[in-house]
């Protein structure tokens, strides 16, 4: 997974490099078009196009039938039942291409998420850095502990970042937290020392469009899949992950500043709209029915 | 290899690992929010459809009380209806002699059963016995003098040139001009020239639904309470009544005489680039023809041809007709004209030829009004797929010109019949109360083109091996019998089923050049120095012409004040001339064959009655079996011999003496009138639904009283003629 993520990171960094200085919407427009084309290609090859076409035609016919026989309750209900039946078939037929599309799309979405979901911290912004220890951190004996049972950890901050608080220990969650303040935005690497072990967390803030991850994952497969933007923590370390509470980014469209809604990042809303519009616009060129 | 029915789960088996991965991924943030454009749209569309359906359901529920109230307030009262559904299966040109022979031979079991259950009669056709005339009388219940359809063609009274008798397509003369573009400010007016009212229109006044499928002379469609698909007179996209295209490497200066265009392919390689020419582009100055790029690539080794139409690829195998292919002509930004065609490679040897059927108006996106309501053709196309919309959909001209062969024509005919059956049964399944009227044309077209193989010595069969299609007509009758069986299986209580043909059929061995006869006998004169070999009577000296033949059975007098250059005084002179011509032409003999060519010539004033008599031909020629107007005469050529052999594949006909080609009439209930005529059906249908026929209708009721076999009918008086079950005068 790490190898795959490394490759994807390089690929997406290169792909999005030309858009670094441009508004987020521009890059998303291009990425959405490429994604739409890719999805159309997959959809065409993995779906039963003939049956989809036939079912869609029957759904349309049903809608016409309701209009045609609008004096007859019997005909209206019969047409509606037919439409619903065909709709179920349509969804079933769409499921197969969805199975093929979703895995690669998820990888793509995960990469885009770390380029577009989080805003670059500005001067004066406050961030909470949280290091979560492994479940068995005490067993190894490698972590020095204070009299109160709190793990001894030191923070190494680059110029431009200052710690506003000492570390706060939450034993139930095995979490050590610091509140940081950004004095000088830039590309920073934060260091955490626990015993002899040293850990780092990236914080990219020099440009609006950069790979920016709220979590540096541990070694678990799922964590790496979900947070592929940074090299995972070492497998023999005492930390499970390191997190920064980055602020969500907005995407400005003409006349509409898209914000995070119900947990859905702004970029994803834009990507969803753009890719659907592109897919609709390109479907005839690709000869795809959906 | 065995067939194991698959369950949904087994069908999905190959996808289980993928499904598992998808589930893992789908529930992992942030991918949970999005599943891609394809699947996303599928979900969106489905939700949209459900919402629209619910919306329509709610709207229909909310609107229903108001609609019901409106119906109650505006509904015209009817008497107690005798029937709940009237179903009419029109089998164009089904001949009683052939029908009776095949019934006697046991080859038409369903029609035999129908006759036994109800009745079978021959049915009187119209004067002339011609499809547009006969079906117009069928639908309106009046004689042609009241519905104004006397032939396929009429003439322009000023120019004497032929015009379509049933529809008039106007032009647009007002445009908004923007540079090279001109935007029409209104649509061209299309008028149906058939007068009077079809019975489905009257039924509609009483909110009785009718579905009318492909009944001739319904273009543009009637507006009534019901649905209609137009038929005869619907043009192709080029505006003609059926122009096929032939893309060929063969060089020829000869033009097709009938409805075809040859496009010569340039180049000696196996790749050709050309265009498909469509209709004129009314949006551009000069009205240039719309075009679609056509690329053809021959693969002789694989015996196939790759055809690319505007970038869309089609792989053709020689001798096989493609399904309907959509052609989209781009007229202006956002304005497209859509047509459908079928293609076939007819030659892939030293020469290459590609046949393209007439470009039908696309039913899914019609460029002209071919349905009522306007979306009905779209609905039907969605429901059953694309279908032929051209008035005369079977390409008889291509077979006449030997561009296609017998087998191809039969396939076209049966494919069109299959489309028609699908739409018929789709309509039947949704008919709870009302009428369904459909005409199937296959019998007519197949008899026109295959009669030559039915009888010994037909001149059109000379030099041809007709063995393969000797039974084509019989097979068409058997095919129709199966259709009737399927319909009978769907009948419910209180349904009335009628199986009707508009006329019978006979042989067309010899053509009669009536204009040649009129010229030879001094009734028609040519301009000095002319021989009469030009089409459409262009060489006629009208100042010396008293009569001329136009259309398939009509003779017009050159009446002063009516025709542009008329010289015959209306009244006594005209009557005397009619009488004179009747006397001379009735019984006209073909001395070469020692046969009577013309049985009887009828005076329009005696066979017609009504306000449109003035538009009728003055005389209607009733040809004998084996005779018909010659091809030359039909196209206005006066030269040539009076009688000549018909050598065309179009070898059977019905434009003869109406007395010798009655149609057939079957009904699942016995009728009281044992000498039915086509014009009797309209008033009878009205009566079945409790409506009195309007006084102007000429037809008589086929039932004196409600048939006893209709369960809702009151008891009939004892001794009533249709009292006994199975009462009929089955003439077989």
Q: Round the mean pLDDT of chain A to the nearest integer and report it.
A: 90
Largest interface: A-B, 68 and 52 residues
Cα-based radius of gyration of chain A, to the nearest Å: 25 Å
- Proportion of residues in extended strands of chain B: 15-25%
What is the CATH domain class of the largest domain in chain B? Alpha Beta
Shape of chain A: elongated
- Name the helix and strand elements of chain A from N-terminus to C-terminus, one letter apiece: HHHHEEEEEEEEHEEEH
Radius of gyration of chain B from the CA trace?
28 Å
What is the strand tally of chain A?
11
Number-wise, the strands of chain B total 35
| CATH topology annotation of the largest domain in chain B | Alkaline Phosphatase, subunit A
For the record, what is the CATH homologous superfamily label of the largest domain in chain B? Answer: Alkaline Phosphatase, subunit A
- Helix share of residues of chain B? 25-40%
In DSSP terms (H or I, runs of 4 or more residues), the helix count of chain A works out at 6
Please give the count of helices of chain B.
18
* Mean pLDDT, all residues of chain B: 90
Shape of chain B: globular
Give an overview in words:
Chain A is α+β, with helices and mostly antiparallel strands and 290 residues long. Helix content of chain A is 44%, strand content 19%. Chain A has 6 helices and 11 strands. Chain A has helices spanning 2-16, 24-46, 49-68, 73-116, 221-226, 266-286, and strands at residues 126-133, 153-156, 161-163, 168-170, 175-182, 188-194, 197-203, 215-216, 239-244, 251-253, 256-258. In chain A, strands 1, 3, 4, 5, 8 and 9 form a 6-stranded antiparallel beta sheet that branches. Chain A has a 3-stranded antiparallel beta sheet with strand order 2-6-7, with no helix packed on it. Chain A has a two-stranded antiparallel ribbon with strand order 10-11. In chain A, strand 10 and strand 11 (256-258) form a beta hairpin. The longest helix of chain A is centred in the first third of the chain and has 44 residues, at 73-116. Chain A is elongated and about 85 Å long. In chain A, 39% of the residues are buried. The model of chain A has no long low-confidence stretch (mean pLDDT 90). Chain B is of the alpha+beta class and 732 residues long. In chain B, the strands form 10 sheets. Chain B has an 8-stranded mixed beta sheet with strand order 2-35-24-1-23-9-10-22, sandwiched between helices. Chain B has a 4-stranded mixed beta sheet with strand order 12-11-20-19, with no helix packed on it. Chain B is globular and about 75 Å long. Classes of the chains: A alpha+beta (290), B alpha+beta (732).
């Amino acid at each position: 997974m790490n190898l795959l993520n490394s490759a994807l990171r390089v690929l997406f960094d290169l792909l999005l490099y030309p858009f670094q200085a441009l508004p987020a919407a521009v890059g998303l427009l291009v990425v959405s078009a490429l994604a739409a084309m890719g999805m159309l290609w997959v959809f065409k090859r993995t779906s039963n196009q003939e049956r989809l076409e036939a079912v869609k035609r029957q759904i349309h016919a049903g809608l016409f039938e309701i209009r045609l026989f609008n004096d007859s309750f019997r005909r209206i209900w019969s047409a509606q039942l037919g439409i619903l039946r065909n709709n179920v078939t349509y969804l079933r037929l769409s499921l197969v291409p969805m199975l093929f599309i979703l895995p690669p799309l998820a990888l793509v979405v995960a990469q885009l998420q770390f380029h577009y979901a989080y805003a670059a911290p500005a001067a004066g912004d406050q961030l909470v850095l949280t290091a979560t220890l492994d479940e068995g951190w005490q067993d190894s004996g490698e972590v020095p502990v204070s009299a109160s049972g709190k793990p001894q950890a030191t923070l190494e901050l680059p110029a431009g970042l200052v710690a506003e608080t000492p570390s706060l220990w939450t034993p139930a969650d095995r979490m050590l937290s610091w509140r940081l303040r950004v004095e000088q935005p830039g590309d920073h690497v934060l260091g955490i020392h626990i015993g002899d072990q040293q850990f780092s967390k990236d914080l990219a803030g020099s440009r609006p469009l950069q790979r920016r991850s709220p979590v540096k994952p541990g070694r678990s497969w799922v964590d790496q899949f979900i947070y592929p933007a940074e090299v995972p923590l070492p497998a023999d370390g005492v930390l499970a992950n390191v997190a920064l509470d980055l602020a969500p980014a907005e995407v400005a469209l003409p006349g509409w500043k898209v914000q995070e809604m119900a947990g859905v990042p702004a970029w994803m809303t834009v990507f969803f709209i753009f890719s659907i519009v592109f897919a609709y616009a390109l479907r005839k060129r690709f000869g795809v029915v959906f | 290899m065995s067939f194991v029915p698959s369950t949904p789960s087994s069908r999905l088996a190959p996808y289980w690992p993928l499904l598992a991965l998808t589930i893992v991924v789908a529930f992992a943030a942030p991918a949970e929010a999005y599943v891609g454009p394809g699947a996303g749209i599928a979900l969106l569309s489905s939700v949209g459809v459900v919402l629209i359906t619910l919306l329509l359901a709610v709207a229909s529920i909310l609107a229903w009380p108001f609609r019901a109230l409106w119906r109650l307030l505006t509904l015209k009262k009817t008497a107690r209806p005798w029937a709940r559904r009237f179903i009419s299966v029109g089998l164009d040109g089904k001949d009683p002699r052939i029908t009776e022979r095949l019934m006697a031979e046991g080859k038409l079991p369903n029609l035999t059963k129908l006759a036994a259950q109800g009745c079978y009669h021959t049915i009187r056709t119209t004067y002339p016995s011609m499809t547009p005339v006969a079906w117009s009388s069928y639908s309106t219940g009046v004689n042609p003098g009241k519905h104004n359809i006397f032939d396929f063609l009429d003439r322009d009274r000023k120019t004497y040139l032929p015009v379509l008798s049933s529809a008039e397509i106007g032009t647009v003369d007002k445009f908004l001009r923007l540079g090279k573009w001109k935007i029409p400010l209104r649509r061209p007016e299309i008028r149906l020239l058939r007068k009077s009212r079809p019975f489905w229109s009257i039924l509609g006044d009483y909110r009785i639904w009718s579905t009318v499928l492909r009944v001739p002379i319904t273009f543009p469609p009637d507006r009534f309470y019901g649905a209609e698909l137009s038929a005869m007179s619907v043009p192709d996209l080029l505006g003609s009544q059926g122009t096929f295209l032939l893309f060929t490497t063969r060089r020829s200066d000869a033009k097709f005489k009938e409805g075809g265009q040859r496009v010569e392919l340039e180049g000696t390689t196996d790749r050709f680039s050309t265009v498909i020419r469509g209709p004129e582009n009314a949006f551009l100055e000069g009205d240039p023809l719309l075009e679609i790029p056509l690329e053809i690539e021959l693969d002789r080794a694989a015996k196939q041809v790759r055809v690319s139409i505007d970038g869309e690829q089609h792989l053709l195998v020689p001798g096989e007709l493609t399904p309907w292919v959509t052609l989209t002509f781009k007229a202006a930004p956002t304005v497209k004209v859509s047509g459908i065609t079928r293609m076939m490679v007819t030659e892939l040897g030293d020469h290459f030829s590609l046949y393209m059927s007439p470009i039908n108006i696309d039913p899914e996106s019609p460029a002209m009004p071919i349905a009522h309501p306007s979306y009905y053709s779209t609905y039907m196309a969605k429901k059953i797929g694309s279908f032929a919309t051209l008035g005369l959909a079977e390409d008889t001209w291509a077979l006449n010109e030997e561009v296609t062969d017998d087998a191809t024509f039969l396939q076209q005919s049966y494919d069109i019949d299959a489309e028609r059956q699908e739409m018929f049964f789709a309509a039947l399944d949704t008919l709870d109360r009302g009428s369904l009227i459909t005409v199937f044309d296959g019998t007519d077209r197949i008899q026109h083109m295959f009669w030559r193989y039915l009888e010994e010595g037909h001149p059109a069969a000379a030099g041809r091996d007709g063995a393969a299609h000797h039974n084509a007509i019989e097979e068409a009758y058997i095919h129709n019998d199966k259709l009737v069986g399927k319909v009978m299986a769907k009948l419910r209580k209180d349904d009335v089923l009628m199986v009707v043909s508009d006329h019978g059929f006979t042989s067309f061995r010899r053509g009669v050049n009536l204009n040649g006869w009129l010229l030879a006998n001094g009734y028609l004169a040519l301009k000095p120095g002319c021989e009469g070999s030009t089409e459409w009577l262009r060489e006629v000296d009208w100042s010396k012409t008293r009569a001329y033949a136009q259309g398939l059975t009509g003779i017009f007098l050159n009446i002063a004040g009516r025709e542009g250059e008329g010289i015959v005084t209306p009244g006594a002179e005209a009557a005397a001339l009619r009488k004179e011509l009747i006397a001379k032409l009735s019984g006209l003999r073909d001395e070469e064959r020692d046969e009577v060519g013309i049985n009887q010539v009828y005076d329009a004033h005696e066979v017609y009655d009504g306000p449109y008599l003035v538009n009728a031909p003055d005389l209607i020629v009733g040809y004998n079996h084996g005779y018909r107007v010659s091809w030359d005469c039909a196209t206005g050529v006066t030269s040539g011999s009076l009688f000549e052999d018909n050598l065309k594949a179009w070898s059977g006909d019905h434009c003869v003496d109406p007395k010798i080609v009655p149609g057939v009439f079957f009904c699942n209930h016995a009728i009281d009138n044992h000498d039915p005529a086509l014009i009797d059906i309209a008033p009878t249908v009205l009566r079945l639904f409790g409506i009195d026929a309007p006084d102007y209708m000429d037809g008589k009721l086929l039932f004196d009283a409600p048939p006893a076999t209709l369960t809702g009918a009151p008891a009939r008086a004892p001794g009533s003629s249709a009292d006994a079950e199975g009462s009929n005068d089955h003439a077989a």
